[in-house]
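Q: Start with the shorter request: fold the first protein.
A: Done. Sequence, then structure:
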Amino acid sequence: MTALPPPPDPAPSPAAPPVPPGALRAAVRRETDSVLADLAEWVRVPSLSCLPDHAVEVTRSARLLQCFFRGAGFPVVEEWPTEGLPAVYARWPAADPDAPTVLVYSHHDVNAVIEEDWRETAPFAGVLREGRLHGRGASDAKGQVMCHLWALRAWLAATGDSAPPVTLKFLVEGEEEIGSVHLGELLERHADALRADVVMVSDTMLWSLDRPAVCAGVRGSVSATLTVRGTRADVHNGAVAGAVGNPLTELCRVLGSLHDGNGRVTLGGFYDRVESPTDHERARLAGADLDEREWTRRTGALGAPGEAGYGITERVWLRPAVEVTSLSGGHPRLPGLGVVPATATAGLVLRLVPDQRADEVAEGLREWVAARIGPGFTYELDLPGTRSDPYTTPAGHPAFRALEQAVGAGRDRPVARMRNGGAAPAAQLARALGAPVLFYGTGLLEDRWHSGDERVEVEALAQGAQTLATWWSLLPDALAGD
C-alpha cells in the first residue's frame, strides 16, 4: 500500500491522569490471577443463544455475571428478563453526584460451535495457555466485559477510593449473537435506568497490541436468507437432467452476479449514499502501512481480493460489502442419490457504511433478487428485522478525545483512528438513549471470533483495563469543559 501523508490533526498529548500510571499498572497486575479465574469459569458456561435447549445455560451465564458484579462491589445488580433470554444490568454511582455517567453495552451469549473445528482445546474448556485464555466467548465478548471489571478493581485498589470516578452502568444482553431481538424493548422499557452521558460499546476489536488506535465507528449490517426452488421434490437426475431447473445452479449464477469485475456490488443504488474516503480519513487509518503479507498471516486468508482501488483497511472499515456466509442444497453426504435437489439456500450478510441505511439496502436487495431469478424457479427471500445502521462517533466529542488520551498514555507511538468492520447496535443505542456512542474492545484479528479455537490475549485485557481506568479518571474534567 502506498504510504499516506501524516494526519493533519494529530491526537492530543496524553493528559496527566489523577493516578500515576505505574501505580495503576501494578494494581492491574495484582488482579490478574483473580480476573482470569473468573473469566475461565464464565467461559465454561455454554451460553449459546442460537440453541433453544441452551436457554438455561444463557440464564446461568447471566446469574454468574451478576455474582461477578456483586463481588466487584456494585450496589445495584439486576436481571432483566425478556420474552427470550435475560440481560444483566448493574450500576455503581460515583461519589461525586455531578460526575458523568457511562453506560457500557456488551453481551454474554456466545456464537455457535462446530466441535470438529476446535483442535487446541474443547470449546468451553476455559484453558489458560501461553498468555491466552481459550474458549468460546473468551474474546467475544465475555473477556471484554471482564476487562471493565478488571479496570474497576484495579482503580479501587490503586486509589483506595470507595467508588469509581464516574457513575458506571452496564447493560449486558443475552441475545446479541441472534440479532439482539429484544434489545429495542429493553431500551424502551428501562430508558430511565439506562440514561447516560456517554455510551461505550465493548464488543469490538483492537488493531494490534503494539499499534495504539481508537475505534471511531462501525459498519452496519443486513442479514438475508435466499432459498431457490426448482421442483416440488428431489428428482432423479437421470430422468430429468437438462429439462428441469436446478436450484443450486441458479443460486450460484445469481450469487456470482453480486459483484462486477472490479469487485463492486451490483445492487441498484447500493453506492448512492456512500462517500469515498477523504485523504484526511485515509491518513488516520491505523493500518495505513498494512501489507497483504501481514493481512494473510493474521487472518489466515490466502489472499486479499476485493473492491479495486482501495487498500485492505479501507475495504474493511470504509467501504460497504456483501458476503455469502453459507450455501446448501442437495445431499453432499449421499452423492449416490444422484438427484436434482428441489431447493438450494444461501445466507448473506451486507455490511454498510455511512451514510447507508439498512432498511433502504434491504429493499434494494429485494428488488435485485426479483430481477435476477430466472424462469422456471420460485424463491423466498427472508430479511429479518434485526438489522443495524452504521454509526460514526462524533470525533470532536470530549469523551472521544479523552479516550484517545487514555489509549496513548504511556505509549511511544501516536494514536491512530480505526473502525470496526463488523456491526454493533451503536446507532440503535444512540437513537434510543440520545447519547454519543464510543467503542473500546480488546479483540484481535487473531482471536478467531465465530471460528474454532477462539481465544483472548491476556495482555490485551490487561492493557484494556489500564486504558479504561485512565479514561474514567479523565472523563469528569473532559466533560466539564464541554
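Q: Next, the second protein, separately.
A: Sequence, then structure:
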Amino acid sequence: MKSLFKVTLLATTMAVALNAPLASAAAPAKDAPAAASANAVFKNDDQKSAYALGASLGRYMENSLKEQEKLGIKLDKAQLIAGVQDAFADKSKLSDQEIEQTLQAFETRVKTAAQEKMEKDAKENADKGKAFRDTFAKEKDVKTSSTGLMYKVEKAGSGDAPKDSDTVVVNYKGTLIDGKEFDNSYTRGEPLSFRLDGVIPGWTEGLKYIKKGGKIKLVIPPELAYGKTGVPGIPANSTLVFDVELLDIKPAPKADAKPEAAAGDNAAAGAKAK
C-alpha cells in the first residue's frame, strides 16, 4: 500500500505536469537569473524534465510554507525535505497510518487558523470602514441615505433618473478604503453595461441619485456590497469607494419581463456576489 505522502507527492507532481493551478503558482520569479538554466547541464530530456518537475514542486512547497506562516503555522523546511527524500527512498520514519493521522490533524490546524484569521481581518475591516465613513460624512456635500449608503453628487446629469428595470452604461473606478484599486473600466477601456437591479444594493440605489451624464462618488458599507464573505480582491466586511459616471440609460422594453444578464466577468465591482 502506498503511503498517503507518496500519493500526495505524485498528485502534486502530476498537477504541475498538466499545467494545473499549481504550475502557475510555481512560475519562475521575474528577476530569476537568466544564466541559471544556461549553466545547467542535462544529459537528456528526461533529466531536464525531472529537474523541472522537482524545481516546480519545490517552488510550490516554498509558497505553501509562506502562506501557512501568515496563519501562524511555521513548518520545519528541513523536515519537509527529509520527508520527501525518505518517501522516495521508501524509508519513511512514519507509518502510513501515522502519516494519514498527522496530515488530518494538520489540515484541521490550517482550517482553524484560517478561520480565526478571517474573523480577525473581517472585524478589523469593519472597524476601519466605519472610521472611514465617519470621516467621509464630514466632507462637503456628502449625504447619507436611510440605508447607510453615502454619496456625493459631483454632476447631476440631465433627463430622468434610471429605474430598476433600466439597463445603464457606466464608467467607474472602484477602490478599497486604503486606495487599493480592484476594478477600473477606464483602464480596461470598456464601459460596463448592466440592468440596474442586477448589481449590489449600493449601486442599485446610488445610481438613482444621478441622471444621464452625471457623476457620483459612492461610499458603500459592507452590508450594501459583499458583506461578511467578500469576493476575490475584496476582503470580508470591506467598505467600497466608487467613482461612477453614468454614460447612458436604456429603458427596458415594455414586454420584457426577464432581467438582462448583468455585467459578466467584468463586474467584479458591481455584480451581486453569489
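Q: Describe the second briefly.
A: The radius of gyration is 26 Å. Residues 143-266 form a domain with the Chitinase A; domain 3 fold (CATH 3.10.50.40).
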